[in-house]
UniProtKB/TrEMBL annotation:
One Pfam family, short name: SIMPL
PANTHER family tied to this protein: SLR1258 PROTEIN
Keywords: Membrane, Transmembrane, Transmembrane helix
Residues passing through the membrane, by range: 12-30
Annotated protein name in UniProt: SIMPL domain-containing protein
Signal sequence extent: none
Species this chain originates from: Alteriqipengyuania abyssalis
InterPro entries to which the protein is assigned, alphabetical: 26kDa_periplasmic_antigen, SIMPL/DUF541, UCP029033
Amino acid sequence: MAGFIEDNRFVVLGSVAIVMVGLMGSGFLLGDGLRRAKEADREVTVKGVSERDVTADIATWSIRFSDTGNDLASVQGSVDRQAQAVRTFFTEAGFKQSDFTDSDISLMRDQQRDAYGNPLPESLTVSRTIQLRTNDVMKARAAYAKQADLLRAGVEMGGGSVNYTFTGLNELKPDMIAEANRSARESAQQFANDSGASVGKIKTASQGYFSISARDGVDCEYCDSSGANTPFQKVRVVTTVAYELN
């Protein structure tokens, strides 16, 4: 009987020892896994920027003018004279006739009534737009600076400014993206050096919009890229990259 108990005691102790070894091994594997998971979570997210100063290569200027009266023939004649004054202005500024053209004309009728409900003479407004489009952006800029001459010539302008557009963006994109990526990598490396780590592989990356704005304007990652009111512009792109840290 005593031998049986002794034998069972050794069996129980052996089982306990095996369980303890298993728990120790599981604890080691769990701890090592947590350590690796924690290391895998170490990352740094940085932005890379690339900018280019450019000069617009297309200028467009739409001049809208109108006149109002009760007689269509006289109103139309006034608008025709204003149109001729605009064409003369562009010609004297050095532009070819093919550089400017009529882009819009409209007629608006307005029937008012007096205090007794009786109809007043119909008011007629004729509006017209002549648009200049040229690759000589500096000549367009100089002409715009003299727009007061149009007022002196009797052109009743309804506002509008020159819009300058840069069309060479596609040629710049590859080099600018590469430069932005290098800038992001340099920022990540500096961060890693400061924290005693090394930069690993890229985890995620995204490219921002290419924006075109005034060269002396405010930096804007999501600005419109359709043009600006100055020929002197700045192209900008921002990339966002997350790197692993080892």
